[in-house]
């Protein structure tokens, strides 16, 4: 086995430091006691974290983003599972065209999608509604969920399903007890990736959101247009801390490797 030398290890450390430096700076600035962006030279302060709780707009936007991401990701997964299984298992006319259609949102700039959705939803009466946000987010995150579930479905051995059905299991029982557990790593990772993209989406959402349905990224975008203070850094740091905490809890309770990679050999 070839081991990395000192030069390679140094490069890796510098590269990781380059990637993590902006995140660390944001987290440090969030603890400043000053009213402007600066490092906490007079000691750390929770002033701006307390300001988040006193700002109902950010709290409401965070709640809406969580709900929007969860609903959109779940609907995208519900569409992606049968689509991925059909594409991976069968050869039929138009298969490549359908696959390209599902993946086409990756090729269209989100600003173009935002304008198109704004026009379309206004015409059908869904402009500025939560339902319109969900539909638009499902479309743009569907390719991420589909690709991962398709990868898991392509490598699945159908002999296991045939064995279950030969023993008397119904199609639904076979899917629930055999197929779904086999593709669960792709489903779980697809849901997580879809949720992240939905939660982080701002370019398209800014055209569709309304004062009643504003996501957290859009709220932050609107806030920094008129204000320059550490509140945005505090919100960003809080999201980072929540994400890390959720990953630690999930790894402790279930195991990230088991969830995203699958069961190992015992």
Account of the 3D structure:
By secondary structure, this protein is mostly helical. The protein contains 12 helices and no strands. The chain has helices spanning 6-29, 47-53, 56-89, 95-103, 110-124, 130-154, 158-166, 171-200, 205-208, 216-226, 231-253, 256-260. The longest helix is centred in the first third of the chain and has 34 residues, at 56-89. The protein is globular and about 70 Å long. The model has no long low-confidence stretch (mean pLDDT 86).
Low-confidence stretches: none
Strand content: under 5%
- Computed Rg: 22 Å
Largest sheet: none
Query: Distance between termini?
Result: 25 Å
By secondary-structure content and strand pairing, the structural class works out as: mainly alpha
Spatial shape: globular
Oligomeric description of these chains: single chain
The overall pLDDT, averaged over residues, is: 86
Order of helices and strands: HHHHHHHHHHHH
Provide a count of the helices: 12
Total number of β-strand segments?
A: 0
DSSP helix fraction? over 70%
């Amino acid at each position: 086995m070839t081991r990395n030398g000192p030069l390679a290890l140094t490069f890796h450390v510098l590269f990781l430091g380059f990637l993590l430096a902006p995140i660390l700076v944001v987290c440090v600035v969030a603890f400043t006691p000053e009213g402007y962006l600066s490092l906490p030279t007079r000691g750390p302060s929770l002033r701006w974290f307390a300001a988040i709780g006193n700002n109902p707009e950010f709290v409401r936007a965070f709640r809406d983003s969580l709900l929007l991401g969860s609903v959109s990701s779940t609907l995208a997964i519900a569409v992606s599972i049968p689509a991925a299984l059909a594409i991976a298992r069968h050869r039929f006319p138009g298969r490549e065209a359908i696959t390209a259609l599902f993946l086409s949102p990756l090729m269209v700039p989100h600003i173009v999608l935002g304008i198109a959705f704004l026009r379309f939803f206004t015409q059908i009466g869904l402009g500025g509604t939560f339902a319109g946000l969900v539909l638009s987010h499902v479309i743009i995150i569907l390719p991420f969920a589909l690709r991962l579930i398709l990868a898991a479905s392509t490598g699945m051995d159908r002999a296991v399903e045939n064995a279950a059905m030969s023993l008397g299991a119904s199609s639904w029982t076979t899917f629930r007890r055999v197929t779904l557990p086999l593709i669960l790593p792709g489903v779980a990772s697809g849901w997580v990736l879809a949720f992240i993209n939905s939660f982080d989406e701002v370019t398209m959402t800014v055209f569709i959101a309304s004062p009643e349905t504003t996501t957290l990224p859009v709220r932050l975008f609107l806030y920094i247009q008129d204000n320059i203070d550490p509140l945005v850094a505090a919100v960003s740091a809080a999201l980072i801390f929540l994400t890390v905490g959720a990953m630690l809890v999930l790894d402790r309770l279930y195991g990230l490797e088991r969830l995203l990679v699958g069961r190992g050999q015992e």
